[in-house]
Amino acid sequence: MFYTDPKKNLNSEGVTKKYTYDALNRLSEVKDAIGQIIKYPYNASGQITNTTIQSNETDTPKVISTKAYNEMGGLTSKTDPSLSQESYTYNYLGLLQQTKDRNGSLFTYQYDEQNRPTLRTATGAGSVTQQNKTIIGSNGILLDTQEIYKNSVKSSSLTAQIDYLKRITSIQVEGANSSLTSSLGISYDKNNRIIQYNIAGGASTNFTTQFKYDRLRLDKV
After folding, report:
1. How remote is the C-alpha of 141 from its chain's centroid?
2. Which sign, positive or negative, has the C-alpha torsion 21, 26, 29, 33?
3. Which of 21, 24, 33, 71 has its CA 20 to 30 A from that of 43?
4. Is 177 in a helix, a strand, or coil?
């Protein structure tokens, strides 16, 4: 892998980009084709604390981002030079509970008793909300459903079914109020290879695609 500057610039090292690593083999500095230097200092836990840039070796470094962490090592904030900030909070198990981006949009996360994410909510300007809800075992242990809500009104859903080998065997998509429904069925052979797709509903005509194999690889569709 290599990189060539479009204008064929070379830095003082005679290359288009130079990477420097510290004693622990972590990336600590990058010098680009025009001599700009980006540095990455680390804290005692091995996490990047800020990122600086300078136009050359003698220029004063300018901080372009700062990061803070909690006692468990979880990222709690990222701040840019304009003091715009992203923030992160966690629950008592250390799972991400809430984030807030530079535009003030709020994202919250809920989990089930097995710490699996079940509800993600985004709240933007004007309190407009979008939610992604996960129903694990929505109709038995082999089916999971994803539902999307806008301002508390369900707009779509996707239900996936697996078999006891944890292979996806069907996917069903529904629009708001079940206004549009389409499904995909998937069949496998004894060698765990897909042999058939069955597509139904939606805007397309129902159809089936079959896959045939020779002893080693796909042969016909």
Report:
1. 26
2. positive
3. 33
4. helix
List pLDDT tens digits, range 9-50: 777 777 888 999 999 999 999 998 888 999 999 999 999 999
The pair of structure tokens assigned to 133 is 């809800």
Q: What would the DSSP string read from start to end of 91-130? A: -TTS-EEEEE-TT--EEEEEE-TT--EEEEEEE-GGG-EE
Q: How many residues are listed for the chain in this entry?
A: 221
Whether residue 99 has pLDDT greater than 80: yes
Task: Give the distance from CA 185 to its chain's centroid.
Answer: 27
- Paired tokens of 180: 């549009």
What pLDDT is recorded for position 1?
41
- Catalogue all structural domains in the chain, each as residue range(s) with its CATH number: 1-82 (no CATH), 105-220 (3.90.930)
